[in-house]
From TrEMBL:
Keywords: Membrane, Transmembrane, Transmembrane helix. The chain crosses the membrane at residues 7-26, 46-66, 73-91, 97-115. It comes from the Bacteria. This is DoxX family protein.
Length: 124
């Protein structure tokens, strides 16, 4: 279980680092979007702050996962982002479901491995 945790944590960390660094350094051209995904993306861009905020959090989480520090906090911090990514791909861009599923299910698995640390969050 410990080796699986390290592998999944490292893969997610590298994925997050790649996505955030690519965004900030404009390493790849933005793919053309159509339909509702274009509307959604235009709305996020119109806010002016949301995408840089999400990518900054992804960068911090990716560094945390790769380095192996503050992971319990990082698992929780990444959860709303991974839920949004999977929902975006389920409803607007189905071609990204495999990677989004890996991120979401990997995050669920990582939280499960440290469940004793999170039990206090769910008690009244």
């Amino acid at each position: 279980m410990k080796i699986a945790t390290i592998i999944i944590r490292s893969l997610i960390g590298l994925l997050l680092l790649f996505a955030s660094i690519s965004y900030f350094l404009h390493l790849f051209p933005e793919p053309p979007l159509t339909g509702n995904m274009k509307l959604f993306n235009d709305g996020i861009k119109a806010s002016g702050y949301l995408m840089p905020l999400v990518k900054t959090i992804e960068l911090i989480c990716g560094l945390s996962f790769v380095i192996g520090k503050f992971n319990k906090l990082t698992f929780i911090l990444l959860m709303p982002i991974s839920v949004n990514i999977i929902c975006t791909h389920l409803f607007l861009a189905p071609e990204g479901i495999p990677v989004a599923s890996f991120l979401f299910l990997g995050n669920i698995f990582l939280i499960y491995t440290k469940w004793d640390s999170y039990k206090g969050l769910f008690t009244a």
